[in-house]
Design goal:
The chain has helices spanning about 15-20, 25-30, 60-65, 75-85, 105-110, 125-135, 165-175; strands spanning about 50, 70-75, 90-95, 110-120, 140-150, 180-185, 195-205. The protein is α/β, with parallel strands linked by helices and about 210 residues long. It has one domain (about 5-205): 3-Layer(aba) Sandwich (Rossmann fold), CATH 3.40.50.150. Strands 3-2-1-4-5-7-6 form a seven-stranded mixed β-sheet. Helix 1 crosses helix 4. The longest helix has 11 residues, at about 125-135. The radius of gyration is 16 Å and the shape is globular. The mean pLDDT is about 95. It binds S-adenosylmethionine (SAM). S-adenosylmethionine binds near residues 74, 75, 76, 79 and 98. S-adenosylmethionine (SAM) binds next to loops.
Amino acid sequence: MSNPASTAGYAGAADTLASTYESIRFEDVHRDILHLIPAPHRDGMAGRALDIGAGTGRDAAALARRGFAVTAAEPTAELREHGQRLHAGLDIRWLDDALPDLAHLTASGESFNLVMLTAVWMHLDATERERAMAAVAPLVAPQGRLALSLRHGPVPEGRRMFDVSADEVIAAGAVHDLALLHQSQRGDMFDRGDVHWDLLVLERPA
Ligand SMILES: C[S@@+](CC[C@H](N)C(=O)[O-])C[C@H]1O[C@@H](n2cnc3c(N)ncnc32)[C@H](O)[C@@H]1O
């Protein structure tokens, strides 16, 4: 699959990014929503998690260690290869699949109890975001959750990024029967003073 425009800047920087992404912990990145990550296999909840735009698999690996059967979708081959090497031996299925349409996942008809979109959505333009929500929402199982973060701040050189509002994502989710469960803001994990993040968790009703 050829790389979508939204992945601009990632392949060439993959080696550096692998150490950067793996230098921070899942528990710190997601500290504000950790209580909303469902425990797999509790209350009859199956433990299937999907990380879209998984990068080098930091979060996919943490979810696998928590007991989820994890699918990591990552279109940038250079990042995917780091992830496969770094987290070999864990229950992670790596897929070359890309927003907005997630052709492989959509065709498979699968659904997941937890779907993560960490630092990915703002790489899509407005038309792609609309299509992407239509593709992502059906992947969220009943009572399943979609956790999403949006970056705000200057666009790094060579990347494609848009300033996407939390309100837009909440409204798009509502169109596809995903209700807002959590909304907050946080500073940057790498202490970049001009970068901040919106955190959202949406839920599909039972
Ligand atoms: C800032 S990185 C975040 C990686 C990982 N989620 C993390 O938090 O470490 C953004 C990721 O989104 C991926 N990406 C960009 N466009 C995408 C698309 N159209 N579909 C899926 N992933 C995409 C990039 O390849 C990259 O791995």
